[in-house]
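User: quick one, fold this
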Amino acid sequence: MTKTNNDHHEFHDSAATNTKLNWIRAAVLGANDGIVSIAGLVVGVAGATTNKATILTAGIAGLVAGALSMAAGEYVSVSSQKDAEKSLINREIIELKENPDKELKELAAIYESKGLSKPTAKKVAQELTDHDAIKAHLDAEIGINQDELTNPTHAAIASGVSFTLGAVLPLTAILLPPEDLRVPVAFVSVILALILTGYISATLGQASRRKATMRVVIGGAIAMLITYGIGTLFDVHI
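Assistant:
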C-alpha cells in the first residue's frame, strides 16, 4: 500500500508527540526529586530546631545545591549521549561514502527482516537512499534523527527548573504554618504532591498508576520520617 502524505505527517506528528511527552515526563520526575529531597531536608531540620531562619536557610541551600546538581548531571549525561550519537552519525556517513552498495544491501536486509518481501525491501531501501541516504540508515540501523538530537543546555535548564519548582512546595509548606503544625502540614502537602507526580509520570509512561503512585508516596514518606527522626535526636531548638 502506498504511503500517503497524510501518513507521512502522522508519523512525524507521532514522533513529535512522543518527544514532548518524554520532556514532560522528565520534568515531572525532576519535580518529584525536588519535592522529596527538600521535604526530607526541611522536615529533618524542623525536627532539630523551631527556628524559622535556620529552616529557611537550610531549605534554600538545599534547593540551590540540588537544582545545580541536577542541571549539571543532566548536562553531562545528555552531552555524553549526544557525543556518542554524533560519533555514530559520522561513522555512518563514512561507511556510506566508502561502500554505498554494501550499505544499501544492509538497509534492504533490515526492511526484509521486518516482513517486507525481498523485492519490496530492495525498492524501499533504494527510494529512501535516493531521498536521504544518511537519514534512512540512521533511522533504520540506529533509531536516531540527526536533526533532533537533544540539546544538553535545554536539558540542564529543564532539569534545574523542574527540581526548583518541586522544591518550593515543601519549603513553603514548612514555613507558612504555625510552629506546631509545620511538620504535619508539610508531610500532608508532600504526600498529596507525590500522589499527583506519581500519577502523571505513570500515565505518561503508560505504567500502572497505582503501583507508581504507591512507590513514590511510600518512598517520600519514609524519607521524611527518617530525616525527622534524625533531626529530633539533635533537638537543638534555638
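User: anything notable?
Assistant: The chain has one domain: 5-234.
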